[in-house]
TrEMBL record:
One of its GO terms (cellular component) is nucleus. It is found in: Nucleus. GO terms for biological process: DNA-templated transcription. InterPro entries: TF_IIS-typ, TFIIS/LEDGF_dom_sf, TFIIS_cen_dom, TFIIS_cen_dom_sf, TFIIS_N. This is Transcription elongation factor A N-terminal and central domain containing. Its main location: nucleus.
């Protein structure tokens, strides 16, 4: 059983615990008991913490006994591989409170980030809102999406969490149904989805609005092109030293003005700037050098 299957199993155990599906939990625990779970997998996945939560909240005795037996098996394996000595066999396949505490402390540091990853898989799975026929497929998708996001932001947990939050929010947005439909249908791969920007995740309607606002803003705010202006030889260019310049006056409403220009009087409805014919340098009146 690889790490992906173990994470999937942990997610299914927690979902079954919420639904009180103890038969499913027993089946999952049996699969784990039969599988060879390595020490590295115990450290890099959240399965140990999930089983401890199961022991604390489950009311079914058979489930608790099976979980204790599995933890005892992993406890002995972990102690043998990491410390080179065999741990004491627990009576009746159980684990004592002291063993529980020691095992949980040993895994606390190594499992802290894996706990976050497991929670992120659950959030993604919840955001996909799978119907009964698609539940297993959705669980695989959530695990794959989280894996690709983790690969993108391995060095930064802050960026990792922000990226997951962005995917979850867009999947939950009723206007972005195309994302969920694309993932479940297979037309959108988990890897591509994990790399999409906010603009790419937006629906066709929102993208069209953004394009309209952007183009309208550029038209309204850019400096006018092809304006000849009035030729003058009374101003010297600070850049090239030439005195062949053109003075242009335009409406202030058509300009994206810097802060220092906006501080001028409200009665001044026009803006005057100078363009050097020699080098193309442009500047406002505060930079004029009059001859």
């Amino acid at each position: 059983m690889d790490a992906k299957e173990i994470i999937h199993c942990a997610v299914q155990i927690e979902r079954s615990l919420t639904d009180r599906s103890y038969g499913n939990i027993l089946t999952l625990l049996g699969d784990l008991y039969k599988s060879q779970v390595t020490t590295e997998q115990l450290e890099t996945t959240d399965i140990v913490k999930v089983l401890y939560r199961l022991l604390r909240s489950c009311s079914d005795d058979s489930v608790k006994q099976t979980a204790k037996g599995l933890l005892s098996k992993w406890k002995r394996q972990y102690s043998k591989e990491t410390h080179g000595v065999k741990s004491r066999e627990a009576g009746d396949g159980g684990v004592s409170k002291q063993e529980d505490s020691n095992f949980e402390v040993e895994h606390a540091a190594s499992c802290s980030f894996s706990s976050v990853r497991s929670k992120c898989v659950q959030l993604l799975l919840s955001a996909l809102c799978p119907e009964p026929p698609d539940q297993h497929k959705a669980a695989d998708l959530a695990t794959d999406i989280e894996k690709h996001v983790h690969e993108l932001h391995t060095s930064s947990q802050v960026k990792y969490k922000a990226c997951v939050r962005s995917r979850v929010a867009n999947l939950r947005n009723p206007k972005h149904k195309h994302l969920r439909q694309g993932l479940l249908s297979g037309s959108l791969s988990p890897e591509a989805f994990s790399q999409m920007s906010a603009e790419e995740m937006a629906g066709a309607e929102l993208r069209q609005l953004r394009e309209e606002y952007s183009s309208r803003g550029v038209i309204e705010r850019q400096l006018p092109h092809g304006v000849e202006g009035t030729q003058t030889h009374k101003i010297r260019c600070k850049n090239c030293g030439g005195s062949d310049c053109r003075v242009t006056q335009v409406s202030r409403g058509a300009l994206f003005l810097p802060a220092w220009v906006k501080q001028s009087g409200p009665d001044d409805d026009s803006m005057t700037f100078v363009t050097c014919s020699g080098c193309g340098q442009q500047w406002y009146h505060s930079g004029w050098v009059c001859l």
